Amino acid sequence: MMLQIDWQVERVPEAEEYLARIADFCLKTEGIDLPVYAQLQITDDDVIHEINRQHRGVDRATDVLSFPSTDCTPDRTLGHCHKKLLRERDESGCCFLGDIIISLPRAQAQAAEYGHSLKREMAYLTAHALFHLMGYDHMNDTDKERMRAMEEKALNGAGIGRVTDEELIAMAFKAMEFSYSPYSHFKVGAALLTKDGKVYTGCNIENGSYGATNCAERTALFKAVSEGEREFVAIAITAEKSAPWPCGICRQALNEFAPELRVMVAWGDNRDEAPLSTLLPHGFGPKQGTLEFLGKE
Ligand code: THU
Fold first, then answer.
1. Is 180 in the pocket of ligand 1 (CB under 6 A)?
2. What spacing in Å lies between the alpha carbon of 196 and ligand 1's midpoint?
């Protein structure tokens, strides 16, 4: 799938790989393997307002607009008109699906509201628009459910779906199975959720020296940071029989990147949670460590 992006506002380079990935997964989810393309215009509120007014008679700005070039419908979505699609290919052998317009300031505001990254919000909006181009709609409950299910499938396939608390906890329990704890026999698992919706898991790894032991939370954190991640929204920590609230060192390590992190603990069927700021009050953060803060040159 080709997504031709026209940045009319300041480019967000880190979003491009995400948008290309989600576009591919939308097509894959619909079962299309023909060469198709769509145009994506990323603009500001004034421009999207004007397009909305002119083409839809709606006198306000919005987050995303889509203008299909195919005549697919919810009853006959693109995946069901392959033959027609073949006939409509242009001279380069490609089929044009239509235009998408996204308002960057809207996407920024929504990302902040939902507490996830801008590139993740832009991927959601692009997926929504692409399914419109393929015939999906949300005019009635049945169509809406079908469209939502397709969006979710594509986003999950691309690894940027919404992760529920229960899913994060389940991932931590799974990671706990790999715990290397021959000395304490206290198995711990952790699953750390990034702002982009990716999950990094970890377990505790003990050591005969005892001191070289690494907790599950730091295993997950270090895996994530060493892969380039810097922003986190939640962590689930699991143990078998008692609440595995993070140790002091892990609280400090997590505080370096995410002082507002949601910390969930689960043991057996029990659940509890607290913000990291409550677990580490008056914490020493990255700012306090700078020479600037210490008043030195
Ligand atoms: N442990 C963790 O993995 N996370 C914590 O925050 C508390 C302690 C591990 C370390 C060690 O392997 C075992 O639990 C007993 O202390």
1. no
2. 27
Report the predicted TM-score, pTM, of the whole model to 2 decimal places.
0.76
**For the chain, how many residues are written?**
297
- For the question of residue 217 being annotated catalytic, the response is yes
Ligand 1 center to residue 215 CA distance, Å?
5
Matching residue, tokens 């001191």:
211
* pLDDT tens for each residue of 220-232: 999 999 999 999 9
- The pLDDT value recorded for residue 134 is 96
Atom of ligand 1 lying closest to residue 184 CA: 15
Q: Distance from the CA of 203 to the center of ligand 1, in angstroms?
A: 9
10 Å Cβ neighbour count for 58?
13
Can you name the residues that pair with 7 across neighbouring β-strands? 42
Residue nearest to atom 6 of ligand 1 (CA): 246
Distance between CA atoms of 131 and 189, rounded to whole angstroms? 37
The burial class, CB within 10 Å (0-12 / 13-18 / 19+), for 232 is buried
* Whether residue 115 has pLDDT greater than 90: no
Query: 134-185 pLDDT, tens per residue?
Result: 999 999 999 999 999 999 999 988 888 788 899 999 999 999 999 999 999 9
Terminal alpha carbon distance of the chain: 52
